Amino acid sequence: MSRKNQPAWTPPAEHLALLPPFSGNQFNGWGEAEPRRPRQIFWLRKSEGHPYGRLLDAVKQRFVSVPAYRDVYALADRGPARLPPPAENRRVASADSWTRAVKDFALNRSGARPEGYPGAEAELVGITAIRPEWVYEGFECTLPNLIVIGNAMDHARLSKVPASADDPEGQLEVCDQYNRGARVVNWLAHWIRAQGYEARPHAGPWVGSLNLLPAAIACGFGELGKHGSLINREYGSSFRLAAVETDLPLNHDAPDAFGADDFCAGCQVCANECPPDAISREKRLVRGNVKWAVDFDRCIPYFNETYGCGICLAVCPWSTPGRAPKLAQRFARRARERAGRPIAEAAA
Fold first, then answer.
1. What residues contact residue 93 under an 8 Å CB cut-off, 6+ apart?
2. Phi, psi dihedral angles at 243 (to 5 degrees)
3. What value does the mean pLDDT of the chain take?
4. Whole-angstrom Cα distance, residue 163 to residue 277?
């Protein structure tokens, strides 16, 4: 898989012809000093009139032309297709009680499954307050709380990316985890509504109204990595996100910083292995924040060509099974040691 010192992959002319006459990085807010909401690109339900509409339609057609990709979404159980209205008689309980119940439901920790609901399948669950800057332009999220879930991927299957029409195994693993995440949040939303509260699920693979990455960071899933995805202290970058927006009273979790950002500053693995050379080796100013950011104009053509790519997640050292907890422990210890040194010594 290694491509170090090889020339960057270049997109075919027919793909370039589908792009709008401006940079995707500009569309995403690179170089903008003022904070603003993100803009949707992969919103395939409404491609008409979208500046990336022609590209989105082409991507959609490319995916559904491969039976393996088309069938995994058409046949998968993603939970209730329609949700009932909230029950008229709202159950009253403390935020502590509801928080325990939600996490038990998502993780299936207690084994006490309400009758009529399948066992949930999430590996991660966190709760945070929704922030306006996470909501895509043109949309509103009116409910106060967000329950974020994470579903771990099978690293052996993920490592078979980049996928192709003839060998779809790696991308099918991504599809399976998006489907699994959809099941969790759809059934969780169903259960919350049965308690008399509003609940709206958000599930991939195509982007919805809410940017889940900063939400997942806020609720303690980990830190943003150089490859533009999250790094978790247990699962590395090998997991997918879904969420439920709700007015159920809940306690919020805290962010979790354990040194992944420091690790990424010195690591070049994902940048070296990225065929289109899309991963920035330094942080960028994006919509008022300095952070790791992937070059959209370089990434998206290869992403489309390979049905979702995923190389950067597979090669990330944190994603190797069993390695993330050890790395988190080591870099968290280094951060504590630096924090405890005298200022003069740390500066030296």
1. 101, 249
2. -160, 165
3. 90
4. 18
Q: Using one digit for the tens of pLDDT, what is the confidence trace for 237-283?
A: 999 999 999 999 999 999 999 999 999 999 999 999 999 999 999 99
pLDDT value of residue 343 = 41
The three-state (H, E, C) secondary structure of 161-207, written as one string: CCCCCCCCHHHHHHHHHHHHHHHHHHHHHHHHHHCCCCEEEEECCCC
Banded pLDDT at 338 (limits 50, 70, 90): confident
Query: What's the rounded Cα separation, in Å, for the pair 173 and 171?
Result: 5
CA angle, corner 200, sides to 198 and 204, nearest 5?
A: 170
- DSSP structure class, residue 235: T
Tell me the pLDDT band of 226, cut-offs 50, 70 and 90.
Answer: very high
Max CA distance (Å), the chain: 64
What residue ranges do the domains of the chain occupy? Answer: 15-338
DSSP code for 253 = P
The string of DSSP letters for 78-133 reads -S-SSPPPPPSS-----HHHHHHHHHHHHHT-S--PPTT-PPP--SEEEEEE--GG
* 187 vs 181: CA distance, rounded Å: 10
Listed in sequence order, the residues at least 6 apart from 345 whose beta carbon sits closer than 8 Å to its beta carbon are none
Handedness of CA 261, 267, 268, 270 (dihedral sign): negative
Is the pLDDT confidence value at 11 over 80? yes
At CB < 8 A and 24+ separation, what contacts does 199-202 make? 199/83, 199/86, 199/143, 199/244, 199/245, 199/246, 199/248, 200/143, 200/244, 200/245, 200/246, 201/79, 201/83, 201/242, 201/243, 201/244, 201/245, 202/242, 202/243, 202/244, 202/245
The two beta strands, 230-231 and 223-224, are: antiparallel
What is residue 153's DSSP assignment?
Answer: -
What's the CA dihedral at 79, 82, 86, 92 to 10 degrees?
Answer: 0
Cβ atoms within 10 Å, residue 160: 18
